[in-house]
Amino acid sequence: MKVICIGRNYADHAKELGNAVPHEPVFFLKPETAVVYPGKPVKLPTNLGEIHHELEVVVAIDGYGKDIPANMALGFVGWYTLGLDLTARAVQNELKAKGLPWEKAKAFDGSAVIGDVALPLAAGMDLRSSSIELRRNGTVVQEGRTRDMIFPVAELIAYVSQYMTLEPGDLIYTGTPSGVGPMEPGDIFEGYMDGKRLLNSAVSKG
Ligand code: MG
Prior knowledge:
Elements: E1 3-7, H1 11-16, E2 26-30, E3 35-36, E4 42-44, E5 51-53, E6 55-61, H2 70-73, E7 77-85, E8 87-88, H3 89-98, H4 103-106, E9 112-114, E10 119-120, E11 131-136, E12 139-145, H5 153-160, E13 171-173, E14 181-182, E15 188-193, E16 196-205
The chain binds magnesium ion.
């Protein structure tokens, strides 16, 4: 399986990092070793500086698809949840400045946290009218609405599938709203979607 992550999919987050709002989706990959399955502790790496949280809607692909039309794309989603795209921000900034790939900052072990509650994508649901919220130790640090995605989930699936075959088990992280910030050992992160807690993760030192 592979983890496909979308960058800069909410204008307010693109702006908070000083990036232009994209005209087509930006994506990158994380390996399977990045995934932190439900119930596993989130361990922060000790050799990458400050690690930031990015709260994202995550969709799981349940079929094989290439060149998927946008109007059929949601049929390839088996379930969805919330996840955290962990980012070594200073390392990423350094790589971006040099025009180098981001993997060291984005694809490290444990950098793709997934929520412990997965919901089936019911017929007719398009994930365009949900609110998402991340609480760090009980305080809200990120809030967003999926209608503010620059490219909705169906378009992301269609776009990525033009370049790589999607396979069952693939995960797509659909981008983060503004409010990204540091994670520390001892933190508890809770992700809510439409008021329902889908993610509950304790952070420890790696
Ligand atoms: Mg992200």
